[in-house]
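Sync notes, pocket subgroup
Present: LS, DG
LS reminded everyone that the earlier model was apo-only. Rerun requested with thiamine diphosphate included. Inputs:
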Amino acid sequence: MSESIVTPPVNGGTAKVSKISEAVIRFAGNSQDGIQAIGGFLARLAGRSEQEVMTFMTIPATISGGPSIFQVRIGSGEVLSAGDEADVLVAFYPHSYEEHIGALRKGGIVLYDSDHVQPNPEWEKQYRHVAVPITSRTVEAIGGTAKDKGKNIFTLGLVAKMFDLNVPKLERLISERFGGKDESVVRSAMSAFHAGYGYSLGEVLETFQFREPARKDRQQVVMTGNEALAYGLIAAGIRFGAAYPITPWSEVMEILRRELPKYGGTFVQCEDEIASACMAIGAGWAGRVAVTGSSGPGISLKGEAIGWAVMAEVPLVVCDIQRGGPATGLPTNVEQSDLNIACYGGHGDSPRVVIAPVGVEDCFYTAIEAVNIARKYSVPVIILSDQSIATRIEAMEEPKLEKLCQDLTPDLSAVADYTPYPLDGTVTPRLAAGTPILSGKYPISTGLEHDEGGHPSGAPKMHLQMTARRRRKLQTLAAQLPQPQVYGPPEGNILLLGWGSTQGPIREAVDRARAAGDSVSALNLRHLNPLPPGLENIFAGFNHVLVVEANDEGIYGYGQLAGILRARFCLPKIIGLNKTDGLTWRVGEILERVKSDVAAGLRRL
Amino acid sequence: MNDTAIQVPQRGNITSVPPATPPDAPRQPLTKKELSADHPTWCPGCGDFAVLALYFKLVEKRKLWHEKIATVAGIGCSSRFPYFVQAHGAHFIHGRALPFASGISLSRPDLHVFVFGGDGDAYSIGGNHLTHTARKNIKMTYVVMDNWVYGLTKKQTSPTSPLGFKSKTDGSGAIDQPINPMKQLIAAGASFVARATHTNPNHLLQMMEAAMDHDGFSVIECLSECVEFYEGAFDASNPRKGGKFETVPASHDVTDEVAAYKLADAPFPGYFGVFYKSGRPTKNALEAKINADARLKVAGKKDWEILQATFDRLK
Ligand SMILES: Cc1ncc(C[n+]2csc(CCOP(=O)(O)OP(=O)(O)O)c2C)c(N)n1
Ligand code: SF4
Ligand SMILES: [Mg+2]
């Protein structure tokens, strides 16, 4: 609650109302408590109130439940990350209390379920403790049958009171959410909500009010990164996809399976990731770019087929929702360790495009961009998302769908002749199967090295020319990519360089460092293969380029992107800043690491 | 954010021309000459030639057009098939022709999808795809050119090599129990399962026609001799070599799965013809039904309006 007027608790007097511009609230409990739902309600409410919102959650990898948290940061200004420290911690159990009190800022508020949690006297001196018998009050409100159910909605009521949230809007959200069900379900949800809202916090605690956010000219929509990705693919005109389930990718395929039929499209659940890559390539070959996706282990399986798509020049979009690896690794944690397999994970020279969205909203637009690059250049495009973007909820400006939605129905009208692989360097889109070719000469798509018409040729010169042809397509694309923009001054001491989901915390780190008088700027890359133009000039403006990645520092001391950049630019000033704890980079963590690296003279190894 | 995506024209630099003949005008069947593409690279005497010749016959007889067929294969000698056919074709990767072809079949109902490949491609590396394509009953015709050996890689044991077959990977004779393709196909749920051999062209053509007419996943297990690495493998099925070509008994009920399984139990040379056939719905039809139902609910809406309705619920 930056900018909040924090005063000590008022004993016995009337509660105080403080204006705040943002708040970070962490809910800690077990996954079956419906913690995610509270977060969802708050995020959606923020979206409807034109506030910025970002969430962060952990889900246990086991189905039977287990500890789970949901953190939501709501703000009237720009929200870049889910927040390092919580202003408020809601703790349902002793384990939630003990494990997450450290995430609360000193002086922050811990709202605990006094039916389960015994406060620690030591911590009572550092944090403001508010006891609420959440469990018994919920049972009182909605009846004792539903064990543990409804605690989340009761808590939502508490939070609504504490932050003076818009009750009619929340009520509408609750009835929308439970509306499809039995009448009595909505009724008990409302009872739980009002019991929480009506619970007397006033005597112990001040309440907070968000400052009016700046008015936005467009409505906001609220969704997770996986939803934004799936809907982006639909907007882009994708009407066929195939995949095999794996966390955290499954949600994307579930949405596409459910939604595509409305658009006349089909999504197939295959026997494995190999089949799904092949099926998507088959559909792409037949005329329309198709999508497949997975997480690390499945991406490994798709490798051979992706190589074929490179060789035969068939468009394809592959989504990789990264998680911790290798092997089964950390299935529900975040890592940025699939960059190498995305860029180079093919046998032979197999240039493909790799783009990493930087946030939830960007997932939507990256999907459209990926589809269009794939079909323009007849090449596989890999979208490198990750667990943190995939599962977090953000509010985004509503996209102009009428303008953005594309119709990719293949044109099957006759052509005089067709050369699929011209050696003059022309970028030729695929001609859909079903197209009459009046010359009577039909192209063949093959994984063997081939001549211009697709017929096998092992001639040394042909392989040389064709390898160059496939590479040049990416060089042509690279020249057309936009130059990335530096966040902060274009010259200075340190450039923090990141890719994908680290954009938010890195930018926030820059803001904080600059406020403290340090010369730090940031650059976040979306296009990773090929790299965008103009990086040399940007790097020239800084003394040090620190590449912040959620992957290992590797044998030689720098992470996967840092390795690529060092190979590309031969600059010893490119240094890695890595970690592999399975969690997103926190702002404070980045700053500490930068400081310790600077103190160490920025010379490691 | 950027509201304008990169505009990519539908076909880039490719220009359309009027069709050669109006769409409904009568067309002459394609000739062998019009259908032939690259000169086949198979060894002289290879059984695969017969399958190719009969595919041409089928296209000619059934008046299929270049642009309306998709010829797909995996990797192997037999899988080189698409190069020799003048039509949209794909020479895919080893063992994965079926999922590739499924992508075509499920997204392009206007095309006839034919898949060709070898026994290694079908029953070894592609075994799981075979099972699931059969189970899903995806509409296409698949001809497995079974030579009981790995031809392209020069004589290794294949999943159909009989016990005792001496190959480069089984110098003292194969020891692993071979697959019985017919049983495998029936058990997997293929909705049309037939057996043929390259030495009986009339019968093979009949089977191809019946397979093409079948609405579902139709498979022909076709013996196709590798004269280079397994000469004489199928002599016992060839009357000209003193063998016996026995068709499926007229009394056999092709819808009886257990009876089909029993037929498949007969020792080599066994029976030739349709073993099993089922009219269960294809995945193509079932998906189309899901789509029709879903479309009904959004009738009259443009795609962007359907998505808009979803976004309205995310506010
Ligand atoms: C992934 C992969 N593994 C191995 C090979 C090598 N390979 C090519 S064809 C083949 C076997 C071919 O046998 P079969 O499918 O029976 O076809 P045939 O040549 O006998 O017609 C093998 C092992 C390959 N191309 N790709
Ligand atoms: S090696 Fe055998 S299967 Fe291959 S072309 Fe020659 S005869 Fe046919
Ligand atoms: Mg073989």
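DG: The first helix of chain A runs from residue 35 to 48.
LS: Residues 411-471 of chain A form one domain.
Action: DG to write up.
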